[in-house]
Design a protein that fits this description.
Blueprint lengths: L5 E3 L2 E9 L3 E8 L4 E8 L1 H4 L4 H13 L9 E9 L2 E10 L6 H7 L9 H20 L2 E2 L8 E4 L10 E4 L6 E2 L20 H4 L6 H17 L9 H10 L14 H10 L11 H12 L3 E2 H8 L6 H4 L4 E2 L30 H6 L47 H24 L12 E6 L9 E7 L8 E7 L10 E4 L1 E2 L2 E3 L3 E2 L11 E9 L15 E7 L6 E6 L11
Parallel strand pairs: 11-12
Antiparallel strand pairs: 1-2, 2-3, 3-4, 4-6, 5-6, 7-10, 8-9, 13-14, 13-22, 14-18, 14-19, 15-16, 15-20, 17-18, 20-21, 21-22
Helix pairs in contact: 4-6, 4-9, 6-8, 8-9
EC number: 2.7.11.1
Protein name: non-specific serine/threonine protein kinase
Pfam family, one: Pkinase
Length: 564
């Protein structure tokens, strides 16, 4: 006997086609209009959050107001009240027949079969127009990634891959609105998240542009610039590490193209392109290939149009067919040889900039010092003009009283430093002696280890305004790092049983457990402290060796520390 079909209102549910941290996407039939639709169901743990329904309704209305050929069309959204249960929330949208860009890249770039330049410009032009449209309407997506770009096979007129369509605006929000979104602590997907987004700082449209730049990097090299097994490791790379220049990974990528990619994923938002269309225009110029006329029209209508955009003329008329390009043709077989000198302003300076200047310390924006990514002294970008030659530098003679005053001042500074060393908070210095344990357990209704408990001794009381936080790393494909605030009393920590409703299993192979010192006034932490001095204790979790693991002090040598 067959299973009876499931219905949501007048929608007949056929099959679950995707699921993620917020919910599930189902293929369904609208029985009134007899058309195929996609329905996104939000998970119950989100629906029970305080104020969730109001935020969902407000943001769903904003998302549904977007009307663009390269953005998924939202038909309606529903809030169904159920006695004794959280309300059922779901959105109904177009069903798109076709693969995701993630699948497309898996079958091309990841296999070393890089798409031709014309295909890349076609893909990114469509996405850029959609993003710029959403940004002009005050919306930022916050989770741009290949899996959220569908390739619609209903229209293969221009390219066999189909028409790119951005989907999953489910964690979008208005620009300039901080906090209070329906996603709580979700920060986007770690492989594509912008540094300021991961830090929980103010987000803007350039956060989306960073994510788009990461996709461009992956398209031209076959891999994302920042990778790793753990979510914390990947996020810290976005914040602190300079990416490998794409031309070193793919010899067919010219320095000019590489410079455009690196600008698009600059650590500081203000160093990126001002719009997605401007980014693609710069890419087309670096490729020396035509771009769709619709893209140039969008750039001309933008008040902040740059000279770089105006300097590039070649067009593909909107009523002209796209040039025929072989599926096996790679970047090296573009119709013209890439120029050795870039004509647009800005690109040349990017090519000539020393690689060290690409490493931007975003932590300075939050008044926290970041650890160096590699051993050696901190790299300081060169000044535009060097010091005067020795023969031109005036000699400064100090009078004896001034010299004595400065010497005395130096002694005072040294003495204050010694006193501050003893007054300032310092954890125990012996990294080999266990300070306590983290114990993993199962709840009564779970078959997985979904709980943990922390017990520690000889723990210094946190300084005023600070608090201890425990973190358990998550796989790089997740979008949430489980964390809990710990209470220290009389130099001991004995936590209650801790769990996270977004994570079913906390005990996973090769996981890092970390305790940090954080700002006690910040209730919306997303990632552990960047400053390695604030990463105090750790445990290396490696099941099936057991369920209890020793907590140790993080080594002072950050270059050999598992804590950073």
């Amino acid at each position: 006997m067959g299973v009876e079909p499931r219905y949501l209102g007048h929608y007949k549910m056929l099959e679950c086609i995707a699921h993620g941290g917020m919910g599930e996407v189902w293929k369904a039939v609208d029985t009134h209009l007899q058309r195929m639709v996609a329905i996104k169901l939000l998970l119950s743990n989100w629906r029970s959050s305080a104020g969730f329904v109001a935020r969902f309704q407000s943001e769903a209305q904003l998302i549904a107001s977007l009307r663009h050929p390269n953005i998924i069309n939202i038909h309606n959204f529903y809030i169904e009240e159920r006695p004794g249960e959280p309300p059922l929330l779901y959105m109904v949208m177009d069903y798109v027949e076709g693969q995701t860009m993630a699948r497309y890249l898996a079958e091309t770039s990841r296999l070393g079969l890089f798409p031709p330049a014309e295909d890349i410009i076609y893909l990114f032009s469509a996405v850029a127009l959609a993003l710029d449209y959403a940004h002009r309407r005050g919306m930022i997506h916050r989770d741009i990634k290949p899996a959220n770009i569908l390739l619609d096979q209903r229209d293969t007129t221009h390219r066999a891959m189909g028409v790119p369509i951005i989907t999953d605006f489910g964690i979008a929000r208005r620009q300039g609105v901080s906090g209070g979104t329906i996603i709580g602590t979700i920060v986007g997907t770690p492989l594509y998240v912008a540094p300021e987004q991961a830090l929980g700082m103010y987000e803007e449209k350039r956060s989306d542009l960073y994510s788009l730049g990461i996709i461009l990097y992956e398209t031209l090299t076959g891999i994302p610039p920042f990778r790793g097994e753990g979510m914390m490791n990947v996020i810290m790379q976005h914040i602190n590490h300079a990416p490998t220049p794409p031309e070193l990974l793919n010899p067919d990528v010219s320095p000019e193209v590489s410079a455009v990619i690196l600008k698009s994923i600059s650590k500081k938002p203000e160093d990126r392109f001002s719009s997605a269309s401007e980014m693609v225009m710069a890419l087309a110029e670096a490729f020396n290939v035509p771009v769709p006329e619709t893209l140039l029209q969008s750039l001309r209508s933008t008040p902040s149009l740059s000279a770089l955009s105006l300097s590039y003329i070649p067009l593909i008329s909107s009523d002209q067919p796209a040039p025929e390009v072989s599926n096996t043709e790679h970047l090296s077989s573009a119709p013209t040889v890439l120029p050795t000198e870039v004509s647009g302003p800005g690109i040349r300076s990017m090519v000539e900039t020393d690689a060290s200047s690409r490493l931007i310390d975003l932590a300075a924006a939050t008044s926290r010092q970041s650890a160096a990514a590699t051993p050696g002294p901190t790299l300081i970008p060169a000044q535009e003009s060097g010091p005067l030659p020795p023969s031109r530098q005036p000699r400064i003679r100090l009078k004896r009283p001034l010299w004595m005053f400065l010497s005395g001042l130096a002694v005072v500074v040294v003495m204050l430093g010694i006193v501050a060393r003893f007054l300032f908070f310092t954890p125990p210095s012996n990294p080999t002696v266990p300070q306590g344990t983290v114990q993993f357990t199962r709840s009564a209704t779970s078959k997985q280890y979904n709980q943990l408990q922390v017990n520690m001794k000889n723990v210094p009381d946190p300084p005023a305004g600070k608090a201890y936080y425990a973190w358990i790393d998550a796989p790089a494909n997740e979008s949430h790092i489980p964390h809990w605030r710990l209470q220290a009393q009389q130099k001991q920590i004995h936590s209650s049983i801790l769990s996270d409703n977004q994570v079913a299993n906390l005990l996973t192979p090769d996981t890092l457990f970390l305790i940090t010192l954080e700002d006690a006034s910040n209730p919306h932490l997303l990632v552990p402290a960047i400053d390695p001095r604030l990463r105090l204790y750790y445990a290396e979790v490696a099941p099936p060796g057991g369920t209890s693991y020793n907590i140790k002090v993080c080594p002072s040598n950050i270059n050999a520390s598992p804590c950073v």
